[in-house]
Amino acid sequence: MVEAPVVSERRSPEVVARENGLTITAATKTFATPEGTEVHALDHVDLQIRDGEFFVMLGPSGCGKTTLLRSIAGLETLDSGEIYLGRDRIDDRPAHARPVNTVFQSYALFPHLTVAQNIAFGLQMDKLPAAQVAERVAQMLTLVRLDGLGGRRPAQLSGGQQQRVALARALAKQPRVLLLDEPLAALDLKLRRGMQDELRRLQRTTGITFVFVTHDQEEALSLGDRIAVFSDGRPAQVGTPEEVYERPVNRFVADFIGDTTFLTVPVRTDGDAQVVQVAGGPAVRLTAPAPVAADGTTTLAVRPERLVLDGSAPPIATGTLAELVYMGTDLRIRVALADGTSLAVRVSPPFEGLALRPGATVTVGAAPEHLRPLAVEQA
Amino acid sequence: MSVAAAQPDTAPPAGSTAAVGGTAARARRRGSTPGRLPWYASLPALVIAALFTLGPLAVVIAFSFMTRPASGGGVVYEFSTDAYRSFLFTKNFVGDLVFNPTYLKVFWTSLEQATITTLVCLVLSFPLALWIATRPPRLQTLLMLAVTIPFWTNLLVRTYAWILVLAKDGVVNRLSTALGLGPLELLYTPMAGQLGLIYTFLPFMVLPIYSSLAGFDFRLAEAAYDLGARKATVVRRIIWPLARPGVVSGVLLVFIPALGSYVQPVLLGGGKVLLIGNLIAAQFGDSRNWPFGAALSVIILVLLALALLGVRWWSKRTGTTVSLSL
Question: 20 to 30 Å CA-CA from A316: which of A14, A326, B302, B324?
């Protein structure tokens, strides 16, 4: 490793350890693939997760988010790097000695134990007196709304109910941090929405730090206080849902969260502002500084719902309506611009009185701040 | 042999298919349901079962109720319960029946040996099976192959190999002499017989336990660690209960044949200790008391049947599926 100046920006573990929350410094983990090559599951990850926060780790499969979660739980050992909980270093402790608990994607409920025995398991490991265990189990059953089902076996429960048991079992130990590994992936859409509300409620009532792993960007946006978008073994961006959605730092984040059209356009400087033209349309003054590539272009990220066809925002380009799909809650439209690029536009109701049909010539408008310049990608 | 806890699917009564009506029901009555064969297709299997399982059994039971000829082996076709009576009683000089515990003691010794064999096999097999089940898949296949290698050779040959190992000038004694410990009395001791039994039946314990552990979801173990359990606790509270069906079939697969074992006690143990197997063999051989030999076999059979009924009751009560298969 070359001692690059980047290293000096990183806070030393001593400084970090004095803070609260869950701190991950320079976490690195490499797996060997069956083909003999190496995969960097975690590549020098630095993260600071605050106490009582609902923190979502979002990314495509294989981006390292689950590896990081398992490393926090102690089910995976880091090659290098440290994990602190408050002032205490926990990455050198075995899994059973860490004040964190996990809700597994497969739920991993013990099939030979009843629901109540499953929830009691962790408490019995702490050698709590039987009366106290029974009391806590009853509380937990109420908390996850499974009163009266304590005597059932996991196999006798529905998927959603099993999910609640897994939650209750992990929460029963009142961990400092609750780790959730794609817990809703196995549920159908309606049940998933319900459980998302349930999770938000549980997180607020218990005040426990939730670290939630998902590949579903909608889920991440709706649940997280903050989101870390993972790409290739490291977080590409960490921020509030609004930050990562509205101000993605790079093409990967913009592409992964929500629908985005990328426009590569020539840019010129006019006074102290940068001016772009989309497909030979009117000049638009950018509101944020745009990095200019060697060929004098810049890449803009545009959200479909920020574009209008009714003239309510300044025009940026004119094109032909190529495709129109009725989605109920909105219309999805593809506009082919003069230079051949196609632009996704989403139109919200009311649809009545809109003269939109394929082949029509339309003028696309957008407020200049919604043309978001992206960092130049390294080849 | 199989002890199944789950009730076999009983065919619906004839009326119920008629109620469904339609062509499907008619087709089923004609036995032309796709993938289903008519009853006479299982005739070969039934014939084999009758000839090789039920037939000999019937002969043994019949012989046990017959009379011993005045001299020589065989039976006289005359009903008698003498064979069973002589298991517990002998005629004294005066001709009265007196209780004689000799044969009961033989049974007891056999039970003891079979129990020790089963327990030692269990203690050795569980960690071994658990270790194998947690290896990478390819290594698991190799290790299981290694466990089954003894089956490739005849049992007698393998037992003679043990004689070479344990004999006075065998491998073990040469080693102990070289180490200055002097030769040890190993062969033809009860311990050698016991050792032979353990060696022979170990794979029968490893295989079913392994197969129950191979299907074990080790994410459950992770969940237990995560909830604060140490390794030993995970084994005791999660892995052991879920491996229990395999343990039960292993115990049965070892205990039953060990109880009637014949080769190892004679060849390695020197036949010094009388066991059920030897006792029965002797009745059909030197003692020429076929009815008594048959009666002893029937007694063992009844005892084992009772034990299996006990297992069935246990498996029903606890909802554990036990299947006796490798």
Answer: A326
